[in-house]
Amino acid sequence: MKNMYIPAEYEVVRSAELCTSCRLCEKQCANEVHKFDEKLGRMTADSSKCVNCHRCVCMCPTRALKIVKSDDTYKLNYNWPVQAMNEVYRQAGSGGVLLSSMGTPTENPIYFNKILVNASQVTNPPIDPLREPMETTVYLGKKDVEIKRDAQGRLKDNLPPQLRLTTPIMFSAMSYGSISYNAHEALARAAEELGIFYNTGEGGLHTDFYKYGRNTIVQVASGRFGVHEQYLMTAAAIEIKMGQGAKPGIGGHLPGMKISDDVSRTRMIPKGVDAISPAPHHDIYSIEDLRQLIYSLKEATAYTKPVIVKVAAVHNVAAIASGIARSGADIIAIDGYRGGTGAAPTRIRDNVGIPIELALAQVDERLRQEGIRDSVSIVVGGSIHSSADVVKAVALGADACYIGTAALLALGCHLCRSCQSGKCNWGIATQRPDLVKRLTPDEGKERLVNLVHAWTHEIQEMMGGMGINSIEALRGNRLMLRGVGLNETELRILGIKHAGE
Question: Which domain holds residue 61?
Fold first, then answer.
């Protein structure tokens, strides 16, 4: 019973007429799905190992392959769907916690898809972004300082350290270890070219990437992996990770098979051993403790770098954000429950936390009510799918957005959700040298730059259609949003009216 048969989720279909037995699929599949049968003289496939990454389908020179949803399943039962049954079987056989990656695939509402953007037409005419300037530059950091002038009447620059973004988009925290060296390099180089920032995650910073420090946000998480003076001084900003959208209330987990020599040195941990960061920071049990760490980091870096505090979106996030704003943080990052991850307990990923749209609206409203909105900038993440989501997030109160999964898709990710296995066939979520080399940093950087340029152009077009010519004028402008198919409670939390009102 321990090795109970579980039907394959996907089935590899091979055309006997088109397949030439070139064995390229065999070479491309890290999961060992494809094999050449010497006796039969043809290729075979073990569909039980297939994760539907589509590498074989994309690389097949004769288009002989396709992957379909398997119809080999149990008797239909709406109360016990196939996935729930298979998960029970797996845990009964292993006694272990189920691990998953990327964002939750469950059918909970995506509120961005139920929000529409208003447009201007006559009394407040639209703006043509091709012929008139549109300002997408964003400055992240405290702005609640007194305006002062020098003897000549010129404004004094007395703002605390700021992060300057050419567009309200950043690459979110993805650690070296969870993603490959080449993926990390592509993100770093793209951030530099775009004039934005990428985040190291809790995995430290490889010495090869110190040269991108002006566009790097380094992270200080509960495990303190890779944290040292040079790491902090190299960065443009420091992020204290208190929580993550995909796994609120627990720490990080990097499976041991991903901890190579390079990752071991960068994280300053043993090779080949699971890296599990604790759920809490063991020196933070109150807002006062958090304040101490914030100012310790500012002191260590001579008050030259803004400090970000990252939290997961949970039901009391507005109160948490208020405390963080008063603790001295320059930026609050909020991560919604649909956010991606390299590895998380499946039950946590799919059942804990709240959507970023609801969390953001409540945080912005709370900080405005308390008169401290300018004391801190807000960055949000957690399944930002498109430029429209960025526009809606800014209108709900965000200063900028983190994108993670979208960035990985640009690099070639097919969302097969098997990052925790370390066998990413696209060279992204792996440390195997033969797989890592499949992702070329030059091409990866170019695709990331293309994505952000395209989104920025669309943001400008949407702003123009709204009659708005700057991101600052859009921030928190909920009058430009309308809901569709939302109930009164949802509309109240989001702070928007229903379409037609």
Answer: 10-96
